[in-house]
User: Fold these one by one.
Assistant:
Number 1:
Amino acid sequence: MEKLFYLSDLFGVAVFAITGALMAGRKSMDLFGVLVIAIITALGGGTLRDVILGNHPVSWIRDDTYILVASLAAVGTVLWVRLTRPINETGLLLADAFGLAVFTVYGTEVALQHNLQPGTAVIMGVITGVGGGVLRDIICNEVPLIFQKEIYAIACIAGSLVFLALRELALPDWLVSAAAMLVVLLIRLAAIHWRLSLPRFHLLDRD
Amino acid sequence: MEKLFYLSDLFGVAVFAITGALMAGRKSMDLFGVLVIAIITALGGGTLRDVILGNHPVSWIRDDTYILVASLAAVGTVLWVRLTRPINETGLLLADAFGLAVFTVYGTEVALQHNLQPGTAVIMGVITGVGGGVLRDIICNEVPLIFQKEIYAIACIAGSLVFLALRELALPDWLVSAAAMLVVLLIRLAAIHWRLSLPRFHLLDRD
Amino acid sequence: MEKLFYLSDLFGVAVFAITGALMAGRKSMDLFGVLVIAIITALGGGTLRDVILGNHPVSWIRDDTYILVASLAAVGTVLWVRLTRPINETGLLLADAFGLAVFTVYGTEVALQHNLQPGTAVIMGVITGVGGGVLRDIICNEVPLIFQKEIYAIACIAGSLVFLALRELALPDWLVSAAAMLVVLLIRLAAIHWRLSLPRFHLLDRD
């Protein structure tokens, strides 16, 4: 079971690295830039969480596999785009939703291991889930997508809350994690399918 | 007395959260984006200081009140703007100056508790005071205002230095803190009133 | 010998601070902004490395000299540009290459002292070498140059790998460091001279 979660985690890393590599391509970065943006997108959220928590050493320092998987995903993306033009956007969105689910639940879990209060644990889940994408957008000089696009972070918050609630019941750990991930996944898929968005807050620029 | 400083600190959090929410509104972010930018503006400076110092757990992890106050301020800002268009810019500037004063003195104090050298303590005061606003501007894809606007950081530096100087005298703690805050506040108000700016360094772009 | 490395380190700080001050000038920042960008460019890479490693206190907190040197370099740059217009771009590029070499090797060394795996040590070398420049570009609202320009980070990676390889042999420490720095320096100089670049990854923007 633990093995399965580890593999899911690595899958999330790979998927996020792909979104990073694609963004780097849109900015015409060189191959090193592609690699760095991919790695930051994949591992930035968890690193941010661990640095804020003072949780050392961070995951990718403990285990080289993370960097390796992110790098391979980046190189694979470049080759894939070079050889076969079209990217399966729908497939990528689905994979991204799955990665988000895994990262969110994992981040909430780490926070609870540090005996954080429930509110802070949810925040750590959100940071883990969306932090990498936010860093990617900042470095690529974009206003972060997740603050403007269809419902994204709300999915994290909901999944994290479900995780906290189910943990109070006498359920097996794997079931709690799986159910919380499912919640993130379903909300994301619904948001993508029906293009659900949060209301926006418009203010005229008065400078 | 300690209670008063805690309340001042929370007031600073609320004020900075409002400036964050307003900036998010100028970028037409969704409600989640507004919340995140408000929280980062309010708590980013202190978090940056604590992470650089290795001072764990950071304030908002220790005490849920900080996140709560920042969130309420953000929601309140959105409702306020929706219901009654005009924002009292002058009032906001005054409140911001007060928040800056509190954060700067508090940051310098934390640094001294870590036995930092005076020069570094001043830097920590500045990071605590202006860090949140800088993070807000970076995420919102703007060149940070405080590097271009009227005197802002200079007020922090002056207040922090006054705090260090007065601590050498045999004054009660609350008086030292209050005097240093007053210095920040007065310099900021003078800068706003007479539109004082530091000289700029212009270089032509030769790329 | 150790003294020599310390002086090299300070030289690297000064050089990176100059590049930061020049970038701030291109953004018409005020004098405080120039100072902050210079300090972040000079010390940001090492700080990022130390925060990710949980290596406290970070160098410039331990030793005030770093901040002092960066500040003096920033002030000197402004005066220099005011008094004698032209900047010797070639001289600056050479100095920057030297700073990069010192920082990269130093970062790799710190990582090994923390018993990191070789792959992660190389990453820490790269973060130390290029982190400050990346932070400078992010704050100044630019897509980081090193992800687009001629070979830069590759020089770090190569130098870091050479450092790791030579350490396995029974060579004196100073020789290992010097050789690795020379590798970074030579690759950078070759890249500048022949304008070598990594291939870019172009993707059309489809938003």
Note: Chain C has eight helices and no strands.
Number 2:
Amino acid sequence: MNIIGTVQEMQRYSEALRNSGKRVAFVPTMGYFHDGHLSLMREARKRGDCVVVSIYVNPTQFGPSEDLDKYPRNFERDRQLAEDAGADVIFFPSNAEMYPEHYQTYVNVEEVTKNLCGLSRPGHFRGVATVCAKLFNMVKPHLAIFGKKDFQQLVTIKRMVADLNMDLEIVGMPTTREQDGLAMSSRNVYLSPEERQSALCLSRSLKKAKELFDQGERDAGRILDEITGYIEGVPSTRIDYARICSTTTMKDIDRLEDESVMALAVFVGSTRLIDNYVFGEELNIE
Amino acid sequence: MNIIGTVQEMQRYSEALRNSGKRVAFVPTMGYFHDGHLSLMREARKRGDCVVVSIYVNPTQFGPSEDLDKYPRNFERDRQLAEDAGADVIFFPSNAEMYPEHYQTYVNVEEVTKNLCGLSRPGHFRGVATVCAKLFNMVKPHLAIFGKKDFQQLVTIKRMVADLNMDLEIVGMPTTREQDGLAMSSRNVYLSPEERQSALCLSRSLKKAKELFDQGERDAGRILDEITGYIEGVPSTRIDYARICSTTTMKDIDRLEDESVMALAVFVGSTRLIDNYVFGEELNIE
């Protein structure tokens, strides 16, 4: 497996692949891999001739009081896991390579980023869109694969790619879960054993919401009342948001008529976890 | 010559050229060609295997009270001039193709756009950077050629390309002038005969500034006092700005030590004209 650290080498490598007719499949990550990341890499392996995985903990998407410094990292373990999952290249740029002196350009997707994590984490999606625009220009992929766990991120990236006419396909893959339903996240390592138990309130809320929807409930307020009441009774939890939104606009909706998503962000202890359910889709939670 | 109107056709056309080893040279324009545009196309002809010229009057870079609606247009004349100058393709997208429903993504180059036209025309460079990012993703050029008359625009685009790691070269070409020194501009057609005479105050100011610099003057304030005093005495003129800035940061400077530019924006009647001089460079004004 190739490890590439500079933008120039990455661009030359991908340009040569493209010119020889090879299909480049890209999985952008912040590293510290779990099965969710590995499932994206396996999908990339199926869809591309060359699988590029980037590992970069992007400072511009973290707020000043967030967990940038303590975000978990383990390059050697990640390298081995990526190789086993079928990656051909790890792109591992430095901060100096990504944001050199005089850096000053940002991409703003203005509407779909206003609600949910955009409200709770000002500047987060500006950082996400910017680093993805940069990475896409570096890796020049034919397709890039993202997890649906970060649903608003996926919508934002799709919107940016369409709006800026970036010539690549964005693929969203289902959330990978622990056996008991907890969505996999690099941040799960922050949880104490008691918090790990409380963290199940997110996936269980999705399951409750799906059940209500399947029984015919279409009033967003009634579903949310049920969910927030339930989460408030779980120890060590604090709801950051619990909303039902249009998947097109990411604005709150009252009635579940067009495609809609229930999105949750809950602090469990001091760890902020997110999860979501697109109404009408499958949900494999026991 | 090929005329292409859709993003998809343009991308497929350029991707095929790139894959066959051809070099794509791009000249983005708002049309209504004068010799300045044609000189950029002739340069593109020298540097590329295929010359693509876009014609698009971009609404997002015009302010609400600006001249979007009356901006001069003449496609048939432009088509002939571009063909004579060596263009292979005119890319001529519609507003619906460029900014479809739900459009919401903008590129902001935050620092070099603060001064000069960025002060006078809020949102202008956001529109310029965004449309150039889009056009570069559509045309996929190896190089793009811009005139130095729009100096702050050139600095902004270079900054965006470097920051977002767009894999193309940006080439700046000297300003083309009328015999009497007036910088060529599509907006010169707005000038009455008397205003056309007053409009010479811009190029004559540059020449005065160059003479002062060549005589050893390095105090920006003294050069600007001389220039503004001169322009204020010319009929039908109103200075929008007259500044001396660093070409790296585009911030005002007091002493001409590192590379610096004198930038002028002057209303002549109701027509706003710009011009600039990078100290130390040639200036062919009689």
Note: Chain B touches chain A at residues 7, 11, 15, 18-19, 21, 102-112, 129-130, 133-134, 137-138, 140, 159-160, 163-167, 248-249 (CB under 8 Å).
